[in-house]
Amino acid sequence: MSNTAFLVQGRAVLLDMDGTLVDSTAVVEELWIEFAHEFGLDPDEILRFSHGRPSAATYKHFVPHLSAEERKRLEVARTEQEMIQLDGVVEIPGARAFIEQLRALQVPHALVTSAPLELARVRMAAAQVAVPDVVIPADQITKGKPDPQGYLKAAAALNVAPEDTVVFEDAAAGIAAGEAAGAQVVIVGNTLPYEETAHPRIADYRNLQVRRSGDGTVNIEAA
C-alpha cells in the first residue's frame, strides 16, 4: 500500500520564486523597511502590500507623487542592491529536488516571478535551484501579480491550457493571479491563515513525489 496522499493533478507546473522556491525574506524585508524609513511610511503596511508583487507596483502605490522616472530609479537601485545582497538566500527545503524531479520526468514547468530576469537568475543560483527553461519575469510582462498575465503567458509558452496547470505560490497576490488564470493552486508555507483558503498547502517540498503518466498527466503526491 502506498504511503503517499494525492495532492493535485495537472499537465504542467508553474512556480513563483521568492517565498515559494527561494527564501529571500531577510533581504527583501530589509530593503522595504529602509524605503519606508526614507519616505516616512509604515513598514508593516509596505510589507503587507509588497508581498508577491513587482517592486514597481509598490513604488507606484506608496510614492505616487514621484515621477515615473524617479520611481524607476528607485526600482533600479533596489534591484542592484538585491543582486549583491545574497547572504541568507537559500532554497525552500526540498525545492531543488522537486525541480530535479520535474526535469527528470520531462514535466513542462516554468518560473513566474515578480523579480526581473537577471535578479531571478542570480537568486536561484544563490539558492542552488535550477532555473526552468521557461521564465516569465516582471520585466517581460505589462501587468504584475495579482493580474494573471504572467501565469497565462507561461501556460501559453508551455502549450498547456491554464486550467491544466498547477501553480505553486506563497503570497496573496500570487495566489489571486493563479486563481484568475484558472489554474489549480498549491500554497507553500504559512503566509495565509488556514481559514482563508481551500487550496491544498505544503510546508515545503521535502515529501513531494511527482508521477507522470504516458498521456502527460502529472500527479503530485505528498508522503
Q: Quick recap of the structure?
A:
This protein has 223 residues and is of the alpha/beta class. The chain is built from eight helices and eleven strands. It has two domains: 152 residues, Rossmann fold (3-Layer(aba) Sandwich), CATH 3.40.50; 60 residues, DNA polymerase, domain 1, CATH 1.10.150.
Strand order, largest beta sheet:
6-5-2-7-8-9
CATH superfamily of the largest domain: HAD superfamily/HAD-like
Calculate the terminal CA-CA distance, rounded to whole Å: 12 Å
Helix content: 25-40%
Rg to the nearest angstrom? 17 Å
CATH fold-level topology of the largest domain = Rossmann fold
Number of domain units: 2
User: Per DSSP, what share of the residues sits in E-state strands of 2 or more residues?
Assistant: 15-25%
Quick one: how many beta strands?
11
* Mean pLDDT level: 94
Q: What's the total helix number?
A: 8
Structural class: alpha/beta
The biggest beta sheet reads:
6 strands, parallel
Which blocks of ≥5 consecutive residues have pLDDT under 50?
Answer: none
Give the CA-based shape: globular
Oligomer: single chain
CATH architecture of the largest domain: 3-Layer(aba) Sandwich
The topology string of helices and strands comes to EEEHHHHEHEHEHEHEEEE
